[in-house]
Specification:
Layout: E1 3-7, E2 10-13, E3 18-25, E4 33-39, E5 46-51, E6 58-60, E7 68-73, E8 78-83, E9 92-99, E10 112-113, E11 117-122
Parallel strand pairs: 2-11
Antiparallel strand pairs: 1-3, 3-8, 4-5, 4-9, 5-6, 7-8, 9-10, 9-11
């Protein structure tokens, strides 16, 4: 079992950058593949980014491709989401999630979830 806690959210202007962190405890993070998802009010949870256990494979949702980067530091039990060129449509609660297995963009395939951190982008 692993516990996940997100941090780094806040209020920024369009065009700004922000880095989110997800810290794990209870189990070494290196055994899990990790994903970032986001959910805006009244909308379904949306896939944002994925990184494999070793960090060698990454995937991104179409809406953030080319703007966001995912990375991990297994020694620190932490995964990061670097968000650049933010736009108002990026406003949402951002969640990190962990799973054992190959790439998936489906929230139901992830076993562990953090509580989320709010990101708000003003125009």
């Amino acid at each position: 079992q692993v516990q996940l806690v997100e941090s780094g959210g806040g209020l920024v202007q369009a065009g700004d950058s922000l880095r989110l962190s997800c810290a794990a405890s209870g189990r070494t993070l290196s055994v899990y593949a990790l994903g970032w998802f986001r959910q805006a009010p009244g909308k379904e949870r949306e896939f944002v980014a994925y990184i494999s256990r070793s960090g060698s494979v990454t995937h991104f949702g179409n809406s953030v491709e080319g703007r966001f980067t995912i990375s991990r530091d297994n020694a620190k039990n932490t995964v990061y989401l670097q968000m650049n060129s933010l736009i108002p449509e990026d406003t949402a609660v951002y969640y990190c999630a962990a799973r054992s297995g190959v790439y998936s963009s489906t929230p139901g395939n992830y076993d562990y979830w953090g509580q989320g951190t709010q990101v708000t982008v003003s125009s």
